Amino acid sequence: RRHTRCSRDWSSDVCSSDLFPYPFKDNSVDAIFSSHFVEHLDGIERMKFFDECYRILKPGGVMRLMHPYYKSVRAVQDPTHKWPPISENSYFYWDKKWRQSNKLDHYPIKCDFEFNIYYLWQDPNVPNKNEETRMFMIDKYWNVVADMVVDMKKR
Q1: What share of the chain is helix, strand, coil (3-state, %, to 5)?
Q2: Residue 88 neighbours by CB under 8 Å, 6+ apart
Q3: Exposed (0-12), middle (13-18) or buried (19+): which is 80, by Cβ within 10 Å?
Q4: Which of 60, 128, 138, 155 counts the most CB atoms within 10 A of its CB?
Q5: pTM of the entire structure?
Q6: Which long-range contacts (CB under 8 A, 24 or more apart) does 132-138 make?
C-alpha cells in the first residue's frame, strides 16, 4: 500500500495536474482520497484529473473527494480557487451515460463514475432538521454547507 499526497504545494509524493500521467499503471490503484485539491483546478484541468484517476483506478475502485461547497464563503474567498465552482451537478459530467443521454459526449472526457454526495454542514443545527428543510436551505441559502464529500466508484 502506498500513500501519495496530491497537491501542488507538498514537496514529497506529489501528484498534481502538472504531472500527468501519474506514476501508476492502468487499473492499479484501489482507492484515491483527494482533500481540497480539485477546486484549485480549472475546468480543463478537472477533466484531465478525473480521466487520470479513472485510468489508474482498478475496476470498482473508489475515490473520495472533499472540497468547499460552491455556495460557501470558503469556496469563493480563496483567490487560488479556479472557475467553475464545483456543485452537485458538476459530477454528472464524470458519468458516461449521462454525457451520452445529454448529447455531451463531444467533451474530451473518458471517465465513467457513479457517485454519492454528502454534506459537511456549516451550521451545526442543520443536521437536526428534516430532509425537506435541509434541501430547501441548501437550495435557497448560502453558507449552509461548508464542504461536499463525494464518493465515486469506477464503472
Answers
A1: 35, 25, 40
A2: 117, 148
A3: exposed
A4: 138
A5: 0.88
A6: 138/71
